[in-house]
Amino acid sequence: MYDINKENKIIKGELVLPSSKSISNRLLIIRALAKRNFEIYNLSYSDDTKNLLDILKSDSNIFDVGNAGTTMRFLTSYLANKPGEWIITGSERMKNRPIGILVNAIKELGVKIEYLEKEGFPPIKIHGTKLEGGNIEISGSISSQFISSLLLIAPTLPKGLNIKLKSRIVSKPYIDMTLNLMKKFGIKSRWEQNHIIIEKQSYRVKDFTVEADWSSASYWYEMATLADWADIKLYGLKKNSIQGDSIIAKLFEKLGIKTTFIQGGARIRKISNPKIKIFEYDFTDIPDLAQTLAVTLSMLNIPFSLCGLDTLLIKETNRIVALKNELLKTGNNLAITHDTISRFGNSNFSKNPTTTLCFKTYNDHRMVLALTPIAVLYRILIENPDVVSKSYTGYWEDIQKLGFNVNSSE
Hints:
Number of strands: 22
Oligomer: single chain
CATH topology of the largest domain: UDP-n-acetylglucosamine1-carboxyvinyl-transferase, Chain
Strand order of the largest sheet: 20-21-1-22
Largest sheet: 4 strands, mixed
Shape: globular
CATH class of the largest domain: Alpha Beta
């Protein structure tokens, strides 16, 4: 457990943000499929990316992805197209994260996949073969990673893939990211109504530099908003990013944060206190930002309604319930459904600056990252702090660089 506090409400400094694990993981699969090596500069140091890199180098046929959802989904398609028998397992939480929609789509291509424990969930045994490709259908309502997983292998198949997307699509910017990265490696695609069509092609290899992670930047926007005064330079961010989460800059404009792009990154400054009466937003495309906004708005005592959050139910934890539980400790009683979080009325929390808040984090890196900025306002205790290494390995070092006191506490 970490004991975290800040002696003042001023944040000034500069940081080099971690690189995007979403981009890094896609590049690792592209490199493996290209079967020709190329350099990936600024590859993510996150646990998820290191796990995928180790698996792709392994001679084993049994792979433990831990809590890495992207790795589980990407490997399922990748190994289905690789002759042999492969077993993919993971943490107890991973064994409760559904994969049946992706498995059913791959089975349409002629691959035998078995569930080794619970129907529709990992662990799975894949009888890999050389796939021909063709036409498949898949729901886009559960996880965009299912779709990205299939898109990445599509150009390597003799018949390519014509993927028919059923129902609504969640996290669409991540599908766009996949297609954008594939395009940078020479792959052409067509998105026609609810069909994505990729014909057989070859990946053209070239060295690539991974941009910084906008999801990680969001927590610094949160801190800047909660501070009395803030001026932070975040290096590695791109203005014309392929990451959907780059919209965080626009969302926080409403909360008084100005973003200026500088050489090598972005500068964020608090220029005013929020003046909005209510914050409403649909997070269907960017669910990873929902925790950041829910915590920020709660601590600012701004009424809000956030919808499009049903994918948060099957992340590292049920993030909707986790947010309700932990923000109740700050006097914010959230109303929740399966896909919404809202709060109206005023917080009943004591504004005593000597108050200490103790947060559970449910083994979820984004719960840690979203709750820690509350230390701008109050001393906090946060459990299982090392889980941030799933996406932001140097987080605690960066926190201390910008003036936070971080001490281990039993």
